[in-house]
Design a protein that fits this description.
The protein is mainly alpha-helical. The protein has helices at residues 22-42, 53-65, 70-101, 107-117, 119-134, 142-151, 158-171, 181-194, 201-217, 219-231, 238-243, 245-248, 251-267, 271-282, 286-300, 304-309, 314-328. The chain has 17 helices and no strands. 33% of the residues are buried.
Length: 329
């Protein structure tokens, strides 16, 4: 019997800009802005702790192997991030209760061990759930998932796989259609196209995807450098790190930084115009956009090139990030 054809991954050239009415774009942008504001206000604690390089790389490679759209990989990372945060909070809550009541610290240890033992299963479940949210004809079947897990040495049944998906859904109150930075990037590129941006949106889109991947894969180093710049200190305190969580959860800020960095790579002569448009669209300060794009460029093409061309004066980095951190506090 012939093997079924693998689903084809859409090429970047198939992505269409300028096909949606301006009224629809305005409504969608407003909705994203409201979601982002709420996410920033609610950011605290463990949030952002599970966008670790090895986890993100695993999800990206698995999504690529299964020929899933790029949006699915980001969605899967965010679903897994939210799920793991919930589990960590639950374990800490159980431990606190048992320490307070001076009971045997047994339940939270069991939860921790179960979470560790089932992590790969939960990760794969998050990718499968994300595929169901995206394109119904590219849903990853249970057979595909079970074969993949078996190849890694994990033996599970279909029932266990379904239970795993249900555990993720219940933990997140079935709210898994989470916004991703990619949605913000593509929405802003759409608006830039209507605003007469000198760099074509389709051209920026390809570079944005590469840089967004890089920020996700180097999430901790990128944001650590931003934090150090914001406080002008190479050793941030725990409190300073906790206050900076809101910056990590600001997807609009991340999106404008990625687009600005992409514009510099594509055509640094148009960088100022693009940044000006982004400021007008989002209300984010020029200095904050410049600081984030500078950090992304530093971690992608290196510190030398942007410094020589002076797209971002170094003294703006600390000032901008201080402003971003204080406004999100």
């Amino acid at each position: 019997m012939d093997r079924p054809a693998r689903p084809r991954l859409a090429s970047l050239s198939e992505f269409q800009f300028g096909a949606v009415a301006t009224e629809t774009i305005e409504d969608a942008l407003l909705h994203l802005a409201q979601q982002n504001e709420q996410a920033v206000q609610e950011s605290a604690g463990w949030m952002g702790s599970f966008r670790e390089t090895r986890i993100v790389e695993f999800v990206f490679l698995l999504s690529e192997q299964w020929c899933l759209e790029k949006s699915v990989s980001y969605q899967a990372v965010e679903i897994l991030e939210r799920f793991m945060v919930k589990q960590a909070e639950n374990i800490c809550r159980q431990a606190t209760i048992q320490l307070r009541d001076k009971t045997e610290p047994r339940n939270w240890r069991v939860l921790k061990e179960q979470l560790f033992n089932k992590f790969i299963l939960r990760l794969v479940s998050c990718v499968q759930l994300a595929s169901k949210l995206s394109f119904h004809y590219k849903i990853i079947s249970n057979i595909t998932v079970l074969n993949f897990l078996q190849a890694l040495g994990y033996l599970h049944t279909k029932e266990e796989l379904l239970e795993s998906e249900l555990d993720v859904l219940k933990s997140l109150n079935f709210q898994i259609n989470l916004p991703t930075p990619l949605a913000y990037v593509e929405m802003l590129l759409e608006v830039l196209g209507y605003n007469g941006c000198l760099v074509p949106a389709t051209q920026l889109h390809a570079t944005c995807l590469t840089l967004l991947d890089l920020v996700y894969l180097l999430h901790e180093p990128v944001y650590e450098s931003l934090l150090r710049a914001s406080i002008e200190n190479s050793t941030p305190s725990q409190l300073q790190g906790e206050k900076f969580v809101s910056v990590k959860e600001d997807f609009m800020l991340l999106a404008v930084g990625v687009i600005a960095a992409s514009a510099f790579i594509q055509n640094h002569g148009c960088w100022s115009q693009v940044v000006g448009h982004l400021r007008s669209i989002t209300g984010i300060a020029l200095e904050s956009i410049a600081a984030f794009s500078y950090a992304i460029l530093t971690h992608s093409v290196g510190a030398g090139a942007p410094r020589r061309r002076r797209p971002v004066p170094p003294h703006l980095v600390a000032r901008a990030l201080r402003a971003a951190a204080s406004s999100n506090a």
